[in-house]
Task: inverse folding
């Protein structure tokens, strides 16, 4: 099965590892990986895109993650599925930009970066939030 490279399992970002304490809010750092873990300092690019998605979809960044609806948490984790949001980005040098872009979502972003990177360090850091799952293609074709 090409989807799982002929194996019965597939490494995927595990939401339970990514959000280890759902009693924390997104602003409090509920997402464990650093670039998504909250507004530390002025917040980087990824955090600012998450803030823009939260604004667009009325997601309370101060609410404990466990209280977010499935639909709102799915936007945070899996993105807007191609629907653009407006991002008001500012960098450390004080430069500002406003642009429209689809929000990729935390899990979608991490999975893509894991698959595309040539950096062993990046693969290791993202890999800390992955678990092996039964390949969905293999699972559908396995005898009952």
Result:
């Amino acid at each position: 099965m090409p989807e799982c490279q002929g194996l019965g399992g597939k490494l995927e970002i595990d939401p339970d590892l990514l959000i280890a304490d759902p009693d924390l809010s997104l602003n409090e750092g509920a997402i464990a990986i650093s670039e998504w873990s909250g507004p530390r300092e002025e917040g980087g690019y990824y955090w600012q895109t998450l803030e823009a998605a939260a604004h667009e979809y009325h997601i309370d960044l101060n609410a404990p993650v466990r209280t977010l609806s499935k639909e709102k948490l799915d936007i945070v984790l899996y993105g807007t599925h191609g629907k653009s949001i407006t991002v008001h980005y500012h960098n450390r040098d004080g430069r500002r930009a406003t642009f429209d872009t689809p929000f990729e979502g935390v899990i979608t972003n991490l999975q893509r970066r894991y698959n595309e990177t040539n950096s062993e360090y990046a693969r290791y850091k993202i890999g800390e939030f992955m678990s092996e799952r039964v390949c969905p293609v293999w699972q559908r074709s396995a005898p009952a």
